[in-house]
Specification:
alpha/beta
Length: 358
């Protein structure tokens, strides 16, 4: 890899078309600018959004595409204007690497809602070059979009927090749902859902996991510490929980009816949507009107919330449940993720994978 002020030729694993098959791809990173941090990737989590992107499920994919937005790495170089980081720091990079800096969301430190935000991959940076993600040797990122990983937190454990962790933390923070004693529901027990149980329990909430089958009951109750487990097709049990929850975090990334879950909410309860779904969802209005209920959404979190969430997880000793794999296992990992065959997050050991020739 190159040195400061030189373009760096690196290898990443890229999808070339909507088949989503990943293979080694050589490309160059931009010069390390004054505000930039040059990060050698240690590891990177695999998120369900990566599946949507490599397969063009949302109709916006550009190829070749190196996915990966739960990136943990080591700082190798910093630009002359960088004040937050030093060479040798272990840092994280999430879903966003740029924003306009001038709009209302940017002024309010919720840059994830900037209409001109720049995604970590499958986007175009201000220099006109395609952004590429974390399944690669290195990244060059503006310091604003880099966070310090707390001392003592393992890189592999930190990676999923940069998307799954902050995606849960942000709505609990924004909607005033951090106080203890609340009753919450987590709909879907995947990568985001399992962190939802852990973070909400650490805040002192009574948590009910809601799933389509019974197969994760023991996992939810015994390993993750959930208080209750509901199978959505069990009408009698669902009826028992009607009007009892302050909020439900809905992590399901495929089409599903909303009415059964809206009925579980108390008056003023919130259904918070997090799954990326490209087909319209439906509900009848009385289910919402007769309880003054809210259907809302939340998208990842701000850089400020990411830093808060990492400290919260460190203080409470929260860790992701992960399966670590190498780069050459990526395609198999994506196939397994599509079948929900992972407990609960794949993390790719990038630095420990066999090196490829440029």
């Amino acid at each position: 890899m190159g040195s400061l002020e030189m373009e760096k030729k690196i290898v990443g694993w890229a999808a070339r078309d909507p088949s989503g098959v990943l293979s080694p791809y050589t490309y160059t990173l931009r010069n390390t600018g004054a505000e930039d941090v040059y990060v050698k990737v240690i590891c990177c989590g695999i998120c369900h959004t990566d599946v949507h992107q490599i397969k063009n499920d949302l109709g916006m994919s550009n190829y070749p595409m190196v996915p990966g937005h739960e990136v943990v790495g080591e700082v190798l170089e910093v630009g002359s204007g960088v004040t937050k980081f030093m060479v040798g720091d272990v840092v994280g990079v999430g879903c966003i690497v740029g924003c306009c800096g001038k709009c209302r969301p940017c002024d309010s430190e919720i840059e994830q809602y900037c209409n001109k935000k720049i995604w970590s991959y499958n986007d175009v940076y201000t220099d006109g070059k395609a952004t590429q993600g974390g399944f690669s040797e290195a990244m060059v990122v503006d310091q604003k979009f880099v966070v310090k990983i707390p001392d003592g937190m393992e890189p592999e454990q930190a990676a999923p927090l940069l998307c799954a962790g902050v995606t849960i933390y942000s709505p609990l923070n924004h909607f005033g749902l951090k106080q203890s004693g609340l009753r919450g529901g987590i709909l879907g027990l995947g990568g985001v859902g399992h962190m939802g149980v852990k973070i909400a329990k650490a805040m002192g909430h009574h948590i009910t996991v809601i799933s389509s089958s019974d197969k994760k009951r023991q996992e939810a109750l015994e390993h993750l510490g959930a208080d209750d487990y509901l199978v959505s097709s069990d009408a009698a049990r669902m009826q028992e929980v009607v009007d009892s929850l302050d909020y439900i975090i809905d992590t399901i990334p495929v089409f599903h009816p909303l009415e059964p879950y809206l009925s579980l909410l108390k008056v003023d309860g919130k259904l918070i949507l997090m799954g990326v779904i490209n087909t319209p969802l439906q509900f009848i209005t009385p289910v919402v009107m007769l309880g003054r209920k809210t259907i809302t959404g939340s998208f990842i979190g701000s850089m400020k919330e990411t830093e808060e969430m990492l400290e919260f997880c460190k203080e409470r000793g929260l860790a992701s449940i992960i399966e670590v794999v190498k780069l050459d296992y990526l395609n198999t990992a994506f196939e397994r993720l599509e079948k929900n065959d992972v407990r609960y997050r794949f993390v790719v050991d990038v630095a420990g994978s066999p090196k490829l020739d440029h």
